[in-house]
Amino acid sequence: MHRRDFIQQSAFAGAAMSMPSIIRKPFLQSFPVVRVPSDKRLFTSSAVEKTITRMQQVIKDKKLAWMFGNCFPNTLDTTVFLKKTSGRPDTFVITGDIHAMWLRDSSAQVWPYLPLMQGDHKLQELIAGVINRQTKCILIDPYANAFNDGPIGSKWDKDLTKMNPWLHERKWELDSLCYPIRLGYHYWKYTNDVTPFDEKWLQAMKSAVQTMKVQQRKHSKGPYTFGRITSWSTDTVPGGGYGNPIVPVGMIVSIFRPSDDATIFPYLIPSNLFAAVSLRQLAEMAGRISHDDTFAGECTSLADEVAHALEHYAVVNHAEFGRMYAYETDGFGNHLYIDDSNVPSLLALPYIDAVNLKDPLYQNTRMFVLSKSNPYFFKGKFAEGSGSPHTLDDMVWPMSIILRAMTTEDDGEIKECLHWLKTTDAGSGFIHESFNKDNPEKFTREWFAWANTLFGELLLKIDKEKPYLLKNETY
Q1: Are the CB atoms for 139 and 180 separated by under 8 Å?
Q2: For the chain, how far is it from start to end, CA to CA, in angstroms?
Q3: Would you give the DSSP letter of residue 346?
Q4: CA distance 95 to 299
Q5: pLDDT digits (tens, 9 = 90+) for 129-171
Q6: Residues contacting 186, CB < 8 A, separation 6+
Q7: What gap in Å lies between CA 7 and CA 225, rounded to an integer?
Q8: What span, in angstroms and rounded, lies between the C-alpha atoms of 214 and 212?
Q9: In order of start, what are the domains of the chain with their CATH numbers?
Q10: Is 79 exposed, middle or buried (0-12, 13-18, 19+ CB in 10 A)?
């Protein structure tokens, strides 16, 4: 099922795995039990269960506490398939209602569990398995964004690109190669375990970096093209499958956004900022783990080149907000003034360690994103937040509300975001992909694990940095 293929009304239909029969239990008597029963969960982490117990005592707003208990473990409960391949952990991670593994989503879905690995060897093994599977995926095709659990083919087999049976979809998205680097780097920092970072991993990383360099398009347009027979303009690519023209300036072309929608101007600025960070992380890993100083230098050189190009081509002078980042550019001087809720986004730049939260350039950008000047910022009866061309007009993404709360130090703004998240779940106890700004009963994706675990991550961040905010009995 494609991500925009449906809009649901109500919340207790469809994904049986995440919506079991409603029963009651003493902890929160006014709320139904909607989490998967323990005997049907795909994976159970003792550290995650202890965190849920602790947080449900800390969070005084009973609905937020209930939602945390449903959302934070949702990735483990419903989307992870761990096995051993050649004696090594191998974890396939579906997104939820789509039975395929996105490099981006799989990284983001397990990301909030990284700090809990030290107390749970099984959880560490699961995440090592994700890294191992991502290595395999990149070696299959560094241009693909989503993969099957085996050579079974896909509904997108007839796309006008170089498909093979292992691929679910083959959209070139720069962030798809950044996320596995981010996950691997922080796994290493938390555990000091270098087991996943073997010769195959190094080969995959070299393929990733070579793909990025090819997509700088200094000498040619490269081998990648994409087309799809569709009525959705954002689901296919102009320019004979290469995208709209660019001037080679040092940035990296991304034909698709993290939303899986085609870019208009192929230099996607949040993804290039993400790439600069990821390449520096990879350089450190290549030097210290793989002892490949030549490759480490190549990563650093590319990061420097991308960063230099961003300084010259990504920053604009907006008539209202001053110096800020645009969303896309082409090197000709054209810029796109929007933000999309999918991470990496302009709003999420501090979250991916691409900018400092207090940087005036970011703060100006943030003000733009959260204003009517952003065509995809929607304000309605129930909430306000960024949406996406992926879900058309008037559909706010909870992910944007979560990232808004994560990128502010203002207590009032965080409280407001928590209120919006709490009151727009359509009674489900879970976070959706998007909801209508005037009617949260109208939403997309009942079962979207990334958004669920990201919500849990937000509450854990508040507990660590501003624990007093969780003492409010109602939001």
Answers
A1: no
A2: 35
A3: S
A4: 30
A5: 999 999 999 999 999 999 999 999 999 999 999 999 999 999 9
A6: 111, 114
A7: 30
A8: 5
A9: 8-471 (1.50.10.10)
A10: buried
